């Protein structure tokens, strides 16, 4: 195995893109906690390193275990056939061992921050590994809702190393992430509908079709509309920009009810959702500089 292949396999094993997308809200939560408590980065730089590295390892561990458990699905789906669990570059025993060790090391690091941050991390890990991967993913169309919890706790983790996350800002960020993940995942499920069907995964488009999925996406996108107003303490500029993004997404969603090319529309929604999330969390930090 070449070094290039090894790096590619590791990135596939930890779902590198998904992992990075989950680390950003941790950092945003930490940054905003500093802002609202009047603390400085130097007061908590050690905690920042611990929560960033620790949460990354815990999330990577969960993603690795997901790869280990989903070997039968990944063998069928085109987009996952290159994963090292499928190609045989890594044995399943090795993958499971790496996943468990990575998780344990991550939790040990988090325990050096605060118990609250560790608890949020455990909730995310447990929900993703057991409630989503091993229980709901293969049984219910609501698997998307269950899985959304795991990604939504990330800003709470970052905030909680500085102060208690029982605050309107991290709670609202949790709600944004929880709701955002549904239309984002539904867009992906529409794009890969036939692959999910072949693998026997009851994603909403597979079970109820594209029309139902598109209507539900519009409902969830609309639910994002009031949330920036709960973050008015970040300023009018922040609320205005996010509200514009929400309205634009609702328009795109409604357009999907009339557009015939469902797969192209799903792809547009996927791209919009990814950029929306990046802008949202980057903006939360930019407006506080």
Automatic annotation (TrEMBL):
Record's keyword terms, sorted: Cell membrane, Heme biosynthesis, Membrane, Transferase, Transmembrane, Transmembrane helix
Catalytic activity: heme b + (2E,6E)-farnesyl diphosphate + H2O = Fe(II)-heme o + diphosphate
InterPro entries from the UniProt entry: Protohaem_IX_farnesylTrfase, UbiA_prenyltransferase, UbiA_prenylTrfase_CS, UbiA_sf
A molecular-function term among this protein's GO annotations: protoheme IX farnesyltransferase activity
EC top class named in words: transferase
GO-annotated cellular components: plasma membrane
Pathway the protein acts in: Porphyrin-containing compound metabolism; heme O biosynthesis; heme O from protoheme: step 1/1
Keyword presence, Transferase: yes
EC code: 2.5.1.141
Predominant location: membrane
Coiled-coil stretches: none
One BP annotation, GO: heme O biosynthetic process
Family: Belongs to the UbiA prenyltransferase family. Protoheme IX farnesyltransferase subfamily.
Function text: Converts heme B (protoheme IX) to heme O by substitution of the vinyl group on carbon 2 of heme B porphyrin ring with a hydroxyethyl farnesyl side group.
Subunit annotation: Interacts with CtaA.
Protein's name in the database: Protoheme IX farnesyltransferase
Taxonomic placement: Bacteria, Bacillati, Bacillota, Bacilli, Bacillales
Gene name as annotated: ctaB
């Amino acid at each position: 195995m070449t070094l290039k292949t090894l790096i590619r396999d590791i990135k596939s094993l930890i779902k590198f893109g998904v992992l990075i997308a989950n680390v950003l809200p941790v950092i945003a939560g930490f940054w905003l906690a500093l802002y609202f408590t009047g603390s400085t980065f130097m007061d908590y730089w050690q905690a920042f390193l611990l929560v960033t590295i620790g949460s990354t390892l815990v999330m990577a561990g969960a993603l690795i275990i997901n790869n280990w458990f989903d070997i039968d699905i990944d063998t069928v789906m085109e987009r996952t056939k290159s994963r090292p669990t499928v190609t045989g570059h890594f044995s399943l025993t090795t993958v499971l061992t790496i996943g468990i060790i990575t998780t344990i090391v991550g939790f040990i690091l988090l325990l050096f921050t605060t118990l609250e941050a560790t608890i949020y991390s455990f909730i995310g890990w447990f929900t993703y590994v057991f409630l989503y991967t091993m229980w709901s993913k293969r049984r219910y169309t609501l698997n998307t809702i269950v899985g959304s919890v795991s990604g939504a706790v990330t800003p709470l983790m970052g905030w909680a190393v500085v102060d208690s996350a029982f605050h309107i800002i991290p709670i609202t960020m949790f709600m944004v992430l929880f709701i955002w993940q549904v239309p984002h995942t539904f867009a992906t499920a529409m794009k890969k509908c036939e692959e999910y069907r072949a693998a026997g995964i009851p994603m909403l488009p597979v079970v109820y079709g594209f029309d139902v999925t598109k209507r539900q996406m519009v409902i969830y996108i609309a639910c994002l509309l009031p949330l920036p107003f709960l973050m008015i303490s970040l300023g009018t500029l922040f609320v205005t920009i996010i509200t514009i993004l929400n309205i634009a997404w609702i328009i795109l969603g409604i357009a999907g009810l009339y557009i015939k090319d469902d797969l192209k529309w799903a792809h547009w929604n996927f791209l919009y959702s990814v950029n929306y999330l990046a802008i949202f969390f980057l903006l939360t930090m930019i407006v506080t500089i």
